[in-house]
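Continuing the series of single-chain predictions for the mutant panel. This is the parent chain; the variants come on the following pages.
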Amino acid sequence: MGSGKTTVGRRLAVRLGVPFVDLDEAFEAMAGATIRQTFETRGETWFRAREAELLRGTADLPAVVVALGGGTFVFPENAAFIRRHGVTAFLDVPFEMLAERLAGKTADRPLFRSPEEALRLYEARRPFYTMADWTISVSRDMTVDDVVEHLASTLRDAGAGPGGGS
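Parent structure:
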């Protein structure tokens, strides 16, 4: 939450000339409800099952940039699917920066009720995130364009992405 996945993903997709899918946005469009509303009315288990279905649907796209939900990669079946169909990047933003970005924006984030809960969630999920193919250490002095360029260069150097290996 708050790492910039959607913003970076959109710009990277434009840079690469491929579609962009934000799983959270796709879910809300499909469900006709926010993720928070869904957690409250149907529960996290129901949400995670639909999220996995949406993720699997991206396999039909020849090339795409996908911004995962914050918990997507934590589930082994999702991580395995992602590894079979693409490459992953972890936007490693220090927790202090995340907390600043999320301050006052908790209404639409069902698992962020307090800074203490956010820190526990960050610490629990971080080991999964570090299993990504690439880690991009995001610092305060980096712009979104800096992160996008770093990712585009990494993809190009690895031979991945449009015209590359995956």
